[in-house]
């Protein structure tokens, strides 16, 4: 059974454009280099300025753990950590 991550990120207004650029590149990179990453979408909520929603689908829980522990995830978080005002992450069954 595949698993997904749904992540809600409230981005500081002054960083929104830069964050979206970095997050979309991270999504493409994850899809390219992780066999277990099946889908990765970066969406901006229309009614809630600064709210970015990530929809990530993985082969299984092990693929999620691989993603979360990867070097490229660590590098991504180092680049964007200061841009995020609030984060909520949900692991979901698909």
Provide a compact summary of the structure.
By secondary structure, the chain is α+β, with helices and mostly antiparallel strands. The chain has helices at residues 16-33, 61-68, 71-80, and strands spanning 3-11, 37-44, 51-58, 84-93.
Biggest sheet: strands, sense, closure? 4 strands, antiparallel
Distance between the termini: 7 Å
Low-confidence stretches: none
Shape: globular
Order of helices and strands: EHEEHHE
Keywords:
94 residues; alpha+beta; four-stranded antiparallel β-sheet; 37% strand
Fold and architecture overview:
The structure is a single chain. Strands 2-3-1-4 form a 4-stranded antiparallel β-sheet. 38% of the residues lie in helices and 37% in strands. Helix 1 runs antiparallel to helix 3 (71-80). It has 3 helices and 4 strands. The relative contact order is 0.33.
List the helices and strands and how they pair.
Layout: E1 3-11, H1 16-33, E2 37-44, E3 51-58, H2 61-68, H3 71-80, E4 84-93
Antiparallel strand pairs: 1-3, 1-4, 2-3
Helix pairs in contact: 1-3
């Amino acid at each position: 059974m595949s698993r997904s991550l749904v992540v809600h990120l409230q981005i500081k207004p002054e960083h929104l454009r830069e964050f979206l650029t970095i997050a979309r590149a991270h999504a493409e990179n994850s899809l390219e280099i992780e066999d277990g990453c099946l889908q990765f979408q970066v969406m901006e909520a229309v009614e809630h300025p600064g709210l970015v929603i990530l929809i990530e689908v993985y082969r299984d829980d092990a693929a999620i753990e691989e993603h979360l522990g990867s070097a490229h995830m660590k590098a991504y978080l180092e680049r964007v950590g200061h841009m995020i005002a609030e984060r909520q992450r949900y692991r979901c069954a698909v």
